[in-house]
């Protein structure tokens, strides 16, 4: 009888605690996103994954008209890029190294927030190492960015471009929307 009383009391206490302290968003149902070299991220099931070849994965996390890979304007998304995308990440002329922002074109690219504006990326505002699963650290860079009309230099909007680069695994994650939960998804990723 005493054991049964303890079991009922434990269930009641758990019910009270769950009501008082709801589970964090990170405890919501997740889907595994399997990427190159054994990297698996666990992302919310609402996020949509679109693959454009072997080296461009666009993960739509909010509103988006039509996902079409890197640089889709007005598409709330982040990107996981592989070797061929990294190879042209320095304005289309050379490989991404982290010394400059990921920018795979030599012309002005559309602002991710509004396709009627162009984007200007830089300067760097943060750098360091960030955990990506157990035993892997990414070179992390965050860049100030702004959106301007094509006819002037007047700032219409601002965003931060965040980049996690794993050079040995040849993986680059680029986020222009300050996606909530992305840093944790990377931190708690698995490597198989």
Q: How does the SSE layout of this entry go?
A:
Layout: H1 2-20, E1 30-34, E2 39-44, E3 48-51, E4 56-64, E5 75-81, H2 83-86, E6 117-131, E7 137-149, E8 157-166, E9 171-175, H3 182-187, E10 190-191
Describe this structure in words.
With 192 residues, the protein is α+β, with helices and mostly antiparallel strands. 15% of the residues lie in helices and 40% in strands. The chain has three helices and ten strands. The chain is globular. The model is unreliable at 1-25 (pLDDT under 50).
End-to-end Cα distance, whole Å, is 47 Å
Query: Overall mean pLDDT score?
Result: 87
Helix content range of the residues, please? 10-25%
List the secondary-structure elements in sequence, H or E: HEEEEEHEEEEHE
**What class would the helix/strand composition place it in?**
alpha+beta
How many beta-strand elements?
Answer: 10
Largest sheet data = 7 strands, antiparallel
The radius of gyration is 20 Å
Give the helix tally. 3
Widest sheet: strand ordering: 3-4-5-9-8-7-6
In terms of DSSP E residues, the strand content is: 35-45%
Shape annotation: globular
Spans where pLDDT lies below 50 across 5 or more residues = 1-25
